[in-house]
Structures are given as C-alpha cells and as structure tokens.
C-alpha cells in the first residue's frame, strides 16, 4: 500500500526540509488532504534504504497534512499573515518529539524528486489509508477577523482567556498581525509577569492589553527603566500601578518624553512639585494625551473667561478634567452659568464641578428652580442653593431636597420646555 | 435577554425631543441606549466543536493511530473574539422636528418602520403650542435670529388677537375643502364638512385646522395650533404674520409639539427613560392603539376603496384650553378616500 516513488508529487521539490518556516512553494498548490503514515509516526526507522524516499515523502505528506489544518499558502501577506509563525514553533516541537526527522533530510536530495510524476487523486485508496486522511479545512491565508485563527493559535486562546478583547484589536490590521506572530512563552509571558509585578491585577490585565497591545513589542529593559524613572520622581508603587491602569499607554512613552511632559505641566500650571504629582496621579492621561488642548484651555480660562491664575490653579487641582475639556462646551457652559444664572466668578471657582456636567442638566434644573421660585444662588441670602448641589446630586435627591417637589412634577415640567 | 429583547423590539413609540438637539442626535442616542440594553445579556455558554483528532485505537501492540471524533472547546463565537452580538438597530423617524423645536417625536424600530409610512399616509393632524413675543422682528422669525425691526405693541388687545386667529382659521378652512378634492354640492360631503370631518389625504401646503390663543400677557402670548403638512419654520412664520396683521411685529420663542397623530405628551418618553425596558413597555402600550387608528384611517387593507361611514368621530374636541390635549380620544381619522371616492363618482 505504499505509494510508488513515481507517485510522490512534484511539488515536494520545493519543500526545504531544513527550515520548516519557509515553505513558500506550498502556496502554489491547494493543500490536499495528505495521508498520515501512522506507522512511520511511531518512530521506528525500520525501513530499508529503498524506502527512505517514500518515508520522507510520507513524512512530508504527514507534516504537510498537519500544516493543512494550521496554515496554507501564505502567498500574499496582506491583511493578516498566516499563523505560521505561531504554529510552526509548536508544530516543530511536536514533530521533533515524535520522529527523527533530520536523519532523513540529509540523505535525500531534492533533485531526485524531479523525476517523480505526481500522484493522481483518482487513484484508489485502501480503507485504512482512507480513514487516516486528515481533511481539516484549510486556514484562510488572509482574513479580516481573528475568528478564523483563534482556534488554531495558543497565543490567541490564552489572550482571550485573560480577557483581552480581540474584536477591538483586530480593527487595527498591524495589531492583529503582531499578535499572531508572537509566541506566548517567549514574549508575552515576560511582559505579563512584569505587569503583574507592577501591581496590575489579573482581572485588569485584559482591559489593559486591549488598549495597549503594543506593549508586547516593547523591550523589557526599557519598561523597567521607565518605572525606575517614575519611582525616582517619588511616585509610590501603588500610585504607579494606578497611573498605568488609568493611562495604558504610559509605559510606551520614553523616559525623555515623560520627563518633558512632567516639566511642561509644572511650568505651565506653576504648581508645586507635590501638587503636580497629585494631579498626574489623578489624571495620568494628561501625560499620554496631546498637550495642545491643555495649552488652549489655559488661554481660554485666562483670557476668554477671565479667571485669575490662582483661581485656575485651584479649579484644576479640584477637577483635573477641566484641562482636557472641549473648548466649545466650556464656553457654552460658562456663558449660561455666568450670564443667565448670574453667578459671579468667585462662586464658580468654589464649585468647578459645574464645568464637568452636561449643559442640558444645568439648564433643566435651573429652569425648574426658576419656575418654582427657588433659584437663589447667593450665599448671603436665605434659601441658598450651592452649585455643586445643583449639578452633582442625582435626580431624586435633587427633586426632594433642593427643589422640594416630586420627580413626577419635574418630569411634567421637562415636558413643557 | 439579548435575543429575546430584540424579538420584542418592533413597533412605534414616541420620545420627547428636548429643545437644542437635532432629531438625528436623538435617534442615534436612542439607538445607542437600546444597543447597550440588548448587548448587556450574560455571556453565552462555552461552545464546543467536533474535530477529528489522532487518537490511539486498538491494543497496545498495534500502535495504530486513527482519527476519532472528539469534542473540543472552541472560542470562535466567544464575544471577546467576534464582538457584541448586535451592532446596529434599524430605527426610523416619523415627522421630524427641527433643532429649536421640542415635543413628541415618533420613532419606529424594526418592523414598526412600515407603520411610520402608514402614519404618514393617514395624514393625521398635529397639535403645537407656539409661544410668541411681540415687538421684535428677526430674519428667521426666531427670537435668537438677527434683529430686523422693533415696534411698539401697546395697542394690541386680546380681542384683536382672537379676531386675527379666527380669520386665519377661516381662510385655512377654505383651503382644507379645496385640497380635499370634495365636491360640496353633495349631501354626504356637506354633512362631513359641517361636522369638520374633512381633510386632504394627499400632499398639500400647510393647513391649520384650528388655532386659538390660550394665554395673552403682552409682550408674550401663547397660541395652540392644530395643523397638518407643516414644518416648524412655517409655524414661526405664522407668528410673524400674526404680528404683521396686528400692525406690530412678533417673533416665535418656542414651538412645542404636544400631539402627533395619536401619540400625546403622556406617551412621550423623557431622556431619562431612553432605555430598553421603558421603550419596550412603551411599544407594547401603544401597539393596540396604533393598529386601531391606522385601520380606521386607512381601511382594513391599504388601498381598498371603502367609504367609511360618516359616523366616526374625528378630532371632535377642537382646540381646548388645556395645555396638552391628552384627554382626547380617537384622533385624526376621517374617511380616507372620501375625496377620491367622490371624485370617481362625480367624474
């Protein structure tokens, strides 16, 4: 039942057995279900020399059949490269564990294969052989989703079990290619251990990696240097962990860049070192985001809205998000609060949270209070309503305690606006 | 919850569009909130797939490995790999409201979108409360527009205003009859006209079926308008024209739709209620009324030529003085094809 030498297909020529990685010629042919020489698998090289050729042929059949299920042709590494990189290491281990492959490689020459005619697919096959045909559908060489590869790649499976959202990552084509080529044991594990040492919990790793998958391509030494730099600036370990969690790209910034940014904030806001540190711990995305909106917002506060420097500093330490707020929303909110509600600057400074709420909320509540006659924002007079009570409390508490009306009344009023 | 929630999400419901928001933003926000609700179901059970793997079969001596069918876990349909189950919902909008107007906005989701077309073809009337401000004229008839003219309004009294409004209603009544293509010489048509059951069932310019002043405190006044085939800008222009008729000027400060067909302010959902559960409940609550009204307006099957008896009430309340005419029943239906039937018979 052994195939005659004639029947080994010509395309074996191009298979370079010495390196399994580059089976570039396989791409030209549709991967046919190969046979498995199970006897050969059991690793007793009892064949005579005359059969070397066949065994090698069978072996490649088998290996190619294993590959059928794992990769097929990787002609054009377009959208997502084949999973070869990930699979071949593991496949190699599997193959090498069970067979002495190299012993056959060196003995056979590729030229001898040129004389062999191809095997015809219509040739009758015995029952045993038929049962041993592995005919898994081939992996697509390029696809738009990682769904096609997730069952064949251990790396991807382990990432999903960690909680990484592959559907978000695959929207960036480079990201998906990167993940497919990584090996869990070699690259990913070290970075994960590093992150765990930093203080990121297991259940937070998933969300972190979904945002910053590029950390896998960073050098571990660089990451350690950056953490050391942060520690040298007197950030405690817990604080560093919190910052990394809230701003996943923090560790992808070089030491120089981090230094520049910290310096920028210290100079621009003219705060003390401790206050800058607290600010950055509370809102670490200041370090990773763009600096232009911050510069623009500082100008808006000073020139357009007319706040003094110490007032701006006070507001920013209380509500750091004001530095990155949308300029148009800021001006609209301020215009309503200052001109329509007639609240002076010094009161707004005491309650900067009003810049962090939606404008419609402020408008609706103010109009309701005006309708009820309770819109009194001057702390000197009785029945004073402070701005933070106006914006920060949920609807039920606002209606009961501040407006002294029911939620149904509030809803009826809203339907008259 | 996911697939089950989606199965019940078909039908019409109304939301209250706040002023300052474009109708498209409202529709997109509602869609996002519904998607959040639909995708919030619990994670599906881990799936398995069948693979043929090499496994030892037979006695130890033979060492033969054959393919056996084994069930192995698969991650292909895990939500972290393929993303959320539902990424978009089909939501349609009925009669639109522009950015400054507020009020009842009818939305249709899923199969309910074809009911939106039926509602449009039923040509039902809508109620608005329009607030006007005397003494100013602007270029877009709105009080935030560019000021064009200012005038005095001391001479304006409630009687003058009521007279003007009655004139407007009378002229629009004539237009109503004209656009309904009814020959008033017949007895049935005359009966219907007397009872106020006529309305055009095809395209026509804006027609005001009823208009009344509810509140008058110069410079502000509040009128209630019942109209069809209108846009909010035409209503603001109406306020401007009322000002001109009163020999002064007026701008419109608020246009608010209180009823759209058979959806009233009570049915409209506020922003805090734009979530899956409330919308499903609203659809369920409105479904029987929608079906009944559309059947009355359009006939049991669309396109059947039936003359419905003149005994059905239609907008019989007329403009009432209460803000928000929620208490009325049986709005907006009239023998749909009356005009066309008459036409056929008379031709």
Automatic annotation (TrEMBL), chain A:
Give one Pfam family.
mTERF
Q: Name one GO biological process term.
A: mitochondrial ribosome assembly
Q: What Gene3D superfamilies does UniProt report for this protein, alphabetically?
A: Transcription termination factor 3, mitochondrial
Protein's name according to its UniProt entry: Transcription termination factor 3, mitochondrial
Answer yes or no on keyword Transferase. Answer: no
- Transcription regulation found in the keyword field: yes
Task: Fetch the InterPro entries from UniProt.
Answer: MTERF (IPR003690), MTERF_sf (IPR038538)
Q: Which gene encodes it?
A: MTER1
Automatic annotation (TrEMBL), chain B:
Q: Where is the Pseudouridine synthase II N-terminal domain?
A: 90-232
Supply the CDD domains for this chain: PseudoU_synth_hTruB2_like (cd02868)
Residue numbers spanned by region Disordered: 300-347
Q: Where is the composition biased (Low complexity)?
A: 303-313
Kindly name one Pfam family recorded for this protein.
TruB_N
A GO BP entry is:
RNA processing
Entry's family note: Belongs to the pseudouridine synthase TruB family.
Q: Quote the protein name from its UniProt record.
A: Probable tRNA pseudouridine synthase 2
Instruction: Quote the gene name from the UniProt entry.
Output: TRUB2
């Amino acid at each position: 039942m052994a195939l005659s030498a004639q029947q080994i297909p010509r395309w074996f020529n191009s298979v370079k057995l010495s390196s399994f990685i580059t089976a570039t010629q396989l791409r030209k042919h549709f991967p046919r279900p190969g046979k498995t020489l199970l006897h050969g698998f059991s690793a007793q090289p009892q064949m005579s020399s005359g059969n070397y050729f066949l065994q090698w042929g069978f072996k490649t059949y088998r290996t190619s059949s294993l590959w059928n299920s794992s990769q097929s042709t990787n002609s054009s590494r377009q959208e997502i490269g084949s999973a070869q990189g990930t699979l071949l290491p593991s496949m190699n281990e599997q193959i090498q564990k069970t067979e002495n492959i190299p012993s056959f490689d060196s003995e056979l020459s590729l030229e001898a294969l040129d004389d062999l005619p191809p095997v015809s697919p219509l040739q009758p096959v015995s029952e045993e052989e038929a049962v041993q045909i592995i005919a898994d559908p081939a992996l697509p060489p390029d696809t738009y989703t990682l769904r096609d590869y997730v069952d064949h790649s251990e790396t991807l499976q382990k990432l999903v079990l960690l909680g990484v959202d592959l559907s978000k990552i695959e929207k960036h084509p480079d990201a998906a290619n990167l993940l497919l080529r990584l090996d869990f044991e070699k690259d990913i594990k070290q970075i994960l251990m590093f992150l765990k040492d930093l203080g990121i919990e297991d259940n937070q790793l998933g969300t972190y990696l979904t945002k910053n998958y590029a950390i896998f391509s960073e050098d571990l030494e660089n990451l350690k240097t950056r953490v050391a730099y942060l520690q040298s600036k007197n950030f405690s370990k817990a604080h560093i962990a919190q910052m990394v969690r809230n701003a996943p790209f923090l560790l992808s910034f070089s030491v120089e860049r981090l230094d520049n940014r910290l310096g920028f904030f210290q100079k621009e806001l003219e705060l003390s070192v401790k206050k800058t540190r607290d600010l950055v711990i509370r809102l670490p995305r200041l370090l990773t985001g763009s600096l232009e909106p911050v510069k623009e917002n500082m100008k808006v506060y000073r020139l357009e809205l007319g706040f003094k420097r110490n007032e701006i500093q006070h507001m920013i330490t209380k509500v750091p998000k004001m530095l990155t707020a949308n300029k148009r929303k800021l001006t609209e909110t301020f215009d309503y609060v200052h001109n329509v509600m007639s609240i002076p600057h010094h009161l707004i400074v005491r309650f900067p949270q009003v810049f962090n709420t939606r404008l419609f909320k402020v408008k609706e509540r103010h109009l309701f209070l005006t309708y009820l006659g309770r819109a009194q924002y001057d702390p000197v007079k009785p029945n004073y309503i402070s701005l933070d009570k106006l914006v920060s409390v949920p609807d039920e508490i606002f209606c009961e305690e501040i407006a002294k009306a029911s939620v149904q009344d509030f809803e009826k009023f809203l339907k008259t606006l | 919850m996911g697939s089950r929630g989606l199965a019940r999400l078909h039908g019409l419901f109304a939301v209250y569009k706040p002023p300052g928001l474009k109708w498209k933003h409202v529709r997109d926000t509602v869609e996002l909130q519904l998607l959040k609700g639909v995708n919030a179901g619990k994670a599906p059970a881990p799936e398995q797939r069948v693979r043929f793997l090499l496994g030892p079969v037979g006695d130890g001596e033979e060492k033969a490995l054959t393919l056996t069918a084994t069930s192995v876990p698969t991650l292909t349909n895990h939500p972290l790999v393929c993303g959320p189950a539902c990424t978009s919902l089909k939501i349609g909008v009925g009669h639109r409201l522009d950015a400054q107007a507020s009020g009842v906005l009818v939305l249709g989701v899923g199969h309910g979108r074809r009911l939106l077309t039926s509602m449009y073809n039923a040509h039902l009337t809508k109620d608005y409360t329009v607030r006007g401000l005397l003494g100013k004229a602007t270029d877009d008839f709105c009080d935030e527009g560019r000021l064009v003219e200012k005038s005095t309004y001391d001479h304006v009294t409630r009687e003058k205003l009521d007279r003007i409004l009655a004139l407007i209603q009378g002229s629009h009544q004539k237009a109503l009859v004209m656009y309904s293509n009814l020959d008033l010489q017949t007895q049935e048509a005359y009966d219907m006209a007397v009872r106020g059951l006529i309305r055009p069932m095809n395209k026509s310019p804006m027609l005001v079926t009823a208009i009344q002043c509810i509140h008058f405190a110069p410079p502000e006044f509040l009128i209630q308008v019942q109209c069809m085939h209108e846009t909010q800008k035409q209503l603001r222009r109406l306020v401007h024209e009322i000002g001109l008729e009163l020999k002064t000027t007026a701008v419109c400060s608020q246009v608010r739709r209180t009823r759209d067909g058979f959806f009233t302010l009570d049915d409209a959902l506020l922003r805090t209620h734009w979530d899956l559960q409330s919308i499903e409940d609203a659809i369920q609550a409105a479904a029987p009324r929608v079906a009944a009204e559309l059947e009355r307006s359009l006939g049991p099957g669309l396109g059947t030529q039936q003359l419905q008896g003149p005994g059905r009430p239609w907008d019989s309340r007329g403009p009432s003085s209460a803000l928000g005419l929620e208490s009325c029943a049986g709005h907006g239906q009239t023998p749909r094809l009356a005009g066309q039937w008459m036409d056929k018979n008379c031709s």
